[in-house]
Amino acid sequence: MNIFSPDSVQNPFFQKTRRRRSIQDTHITLAHGSGGKAMRDLIDSIFVNTFDNPILSQLEDQATFNLATLLQYGDRLAFSTDSYVVDPLFFPGSDIGELAVNGTVNDLAVSGAKPLYLSCSVILEEGLAVEMLQRVAESMQSAAKKAGVQIVTGDTKVVHRGAVDKLFINTTGIGVIPTGVNISAHNIQPGDAIIINGELGNHGTAILIARGELALETHVESDCQPLNGLVETILNVCPQVHAMRDATRGGLATVLNEFAQSSQVGIRLHEQSIPIREEVKGVCEILGLDPLYLANEGKLVVVVESKNAETVLSAMKSHPAGKDACIVGEVIAESPGIVFLQTTFGTERIIDMLVGEQLPRIC
Q: CA 259 to CA 265: how far, in whole Å?
């Protein structure tokens, strides 16, 4: 069932004339997932009013788009989906709503696509405060507006208390890839430069501290942000980007291992070039974590030919999301499929793929 059109409002005449309702309840009950009046009130009050846009306002079971409008941006569609189960829902610098929008926007953007439309599906736990859900919806709308996308369809489900932890969100996105852009991990070649757009590990550290399970205090905030504007800036100066990926779960180390294996090349990182906040390093030292594997929500890894590296780096630094960009390594022909870290001591160690996640439920 579409989150924005419960069965009770499927009659077209009724859609055109009905007034939007407001929810009177303070907490989610099973009735809010029943398809009746309580569900309609929830949908109207929280989602329809907050995400309001011309496509959404049709209140159909699907969002429809004009193909001619899509084609003005390029000749291929990009399609991505992700689910968000972060704990806690609100953390320094961001929250699950902003995360759900930016995460899918960024997955589309690193393919070179212009993100355009998102869906929003939510699973709600019985007893969730309506005020909290409203805050999340408003955060999603604010993030969507900042990223230049619209939330146009979705779904809602309510489950018994304890069957889910407060709120889970799934967002699916559609974007259009410009003609001539071909970004893939299989394009990487020896001699390519590796660039990142700033400090690593801030998101994972912020989540860890926000859980309150450790007697640690820092001022680290999540780096959650949309990256589509930065990607557009990069492609304007270098449409021939070989590969690009956002370093979320598993961090920089995981992304580079995936790159090395996909193109069967070696990769060498330079430890002294990798920007990591002292607070993040401190937390990692105390807990025995490696910041190269910590999650990020506003960092991307760009691989370009070395001759284009300085041009791309300069362009990235001109954008707010890339002002701290730097070259952190290069692609080598030796040892295909392996990532090395050249340490500050002049030695090298292998950066392998983790078997599991260092920190669970970080997105």
A: 8
